[in-house]
Structure prediction request, 190 residues.
Amino acid sequence: MTTGPVTDIEIMSLAAMECGQQGFSSLDAGGQFALVGQAFLDMVAPTQLAQPQWRFNVKTVQLQLIANFNPDFWIYQFAWQLPSDYLSLQRLDPIIEYQIFGDQIWTPSSSPLKLAYRYQVPVSEWPSYFKECMVLELARKYAKTICQNDKLYRDILVELNEKRALAMFIDAQSHPNEGIVSKPWLTVRW
Prediction:
């Protein structure tokens, strides 16, 4: 369930308000804040979504083997097509050697592969804790570029770091902790 802003414009408007500016409801009304905000969101949102700490934007799919294509590179003999909304890899099952080249994964085996990956989620589907982080990320950009206010920038950065830590904690609750396995060198070398 998500709450809060549901469009790019609402994210940009809230970020402008964080900087003490008037909110806005359209790109035309947003002026510089809308121009900078749109460029920033288009560039930074996918980067933020691709980071490994987020679990809300992970999908699992069965990969499709690319027919009649042999990469013939080192140990890799088979190529698999990555999904079009792929941002970054979470996990490959079974665990095997692989390399990602562009929109393909190359492997030494043709055994079926499942991919857990991070994907581009529309703003309307971002959880509220992630939206809050993105508003502050954008406000930080506004503080530096448009407002040119270093104190405001530092204040927003402190708040962003606190909110991001809380957001990562909340998001991590969707995955159980994995215990540390101890394998001292002396016991595994024989």
Notes: The CA atoms of residues 172 and 179 lie 15 Å apart.
